[in-house]
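Figure 3 (text version): structure tokens given as input.
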């Protein structure tokens, strides 16, 4: 089990409104794609990746500076040098653009909303353990790993492509 990023078991977005997340995961109309923290933590922003982003005209330096600021804040908070940070937010976007760089499983996903110590914990069952206990018909796609090099290349390519489209329109 991977730990949470706002308490021992919960990811921040789920923790902030576990009831809403539970409704979405259990809706009859929705099959979700889940990017768990173990996957987003395996894709990291490091100095070479930041340097590559920094080289992109106009948008690169603000991306570089915001991440450097974040790294510096973490260094100040924890008191030791941090060389990498997880790359959470781009993961779902890149999955929808290039799903073939991810390994996935299908499974039942739910959120704990009542546990004293586990509120906000996301439960992912890809093995069928809960098949007889819950409404198991709502299946989600769960990201389990990613080709990190292909991921970073896609991020850079998309940012460059969009930047040049914007520049072409302005010229």
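Below: residues designed for each position.
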């Amino acid at each position: 089990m991977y730990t949470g990023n706002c308490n021992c078991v919960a990811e921040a977005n789920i923790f902030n409104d576990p009831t809403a997340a539970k409704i979405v995961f259990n809706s009859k109309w929705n099959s979700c794609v889940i990017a768990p923290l173990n996957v987003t933590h395996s894709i990291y922003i490091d100095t070479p990746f930041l340097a590559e982003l920094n080289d992109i005209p106009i948008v690169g330096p603000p991306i570089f500076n915001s991440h450097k600021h974040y790294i510096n804040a973490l260094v100040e908070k924890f008191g030791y040098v941090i060389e990498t940070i997880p790359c959470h937010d781009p993961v779902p976007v890149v999955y929808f653009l290039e799903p073939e760089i991810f390994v996935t499983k299908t499974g039942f996903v739910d959120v704990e909303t009542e546990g004293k110590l586990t509120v906000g914990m996301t439960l992912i069952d890809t093995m069928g353990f809960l098949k007889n206990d819950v409404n198991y018909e709502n299946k989600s796609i769960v990201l389990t790993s990613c080709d990190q090099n292909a991921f970073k290349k896609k991020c850079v390519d998309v940012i460059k492509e969009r930047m040049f489209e914007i520049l072409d329109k302005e010229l």
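Residues 148-170 form the longest helix (23 residues).
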